[in-house]
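Case 166 in the screening queue. Each case pairs one protein sequence with one candidate compound; here the compound is zinc ion. For every case the pipeline is the same: read the inputs, emit a complex structure as tokens, and attach any notable structural observations.

Predict complex for case 166.
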Amino acid sequence: MQEEGIGPRGDEKFWKAIWTMKVPPKVRHFLWKFSRDILPTGVKVVTKNPQRSDECPFCDQKETQHHLFLECSWSSQIGRGSPWESAFTVHGSSDCMKLMAEVMKHESLDLEESWAMVLWAIWKEKNAHLFNGPKWPEDEILQRALSILDDYRKNQGPEEAVPGDA
Ligand SMILES: [Zn+2]
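Case 166 output:
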């Protein structure tokens, strides 16, 4: 299979693009884990804690990253009707890093950053459901995620150091 324009796992440019993305640092950390497919989803957690469930908290499917962000009917409602909804469908891939790389390659910076916020919000809300944490009203998830990005853009301080940048 051709992997044109998308580097291998160790692609420095790709990781640098993730670490320099103009989104809050916690979202960058999330994206890094998302792209490496190492977020502690149900299927990952259950290998270490067999008493835990590997099911998605919103449906009865197995909770993989691909399921949670691309297949689950709960999360797909969150971005519905938004400009980046097509980013999920057009670039949809079972490989999260490839999906991320495709979005970064083909979409505008603004869409890329907003999209990152939505992915992060989906993950944050999933954990809130799982651990009975404070939840955002479902119909406000999108707006709240984007207003965090807005605030971040307005208050952006000096550039932080990029890990691995010697
Ligand atoms: Zn689900």
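Case 166 observations:
- The longest helix spans residues 109-130.
- Residues 1-6 have pLDDT under 50 and may be disordered.
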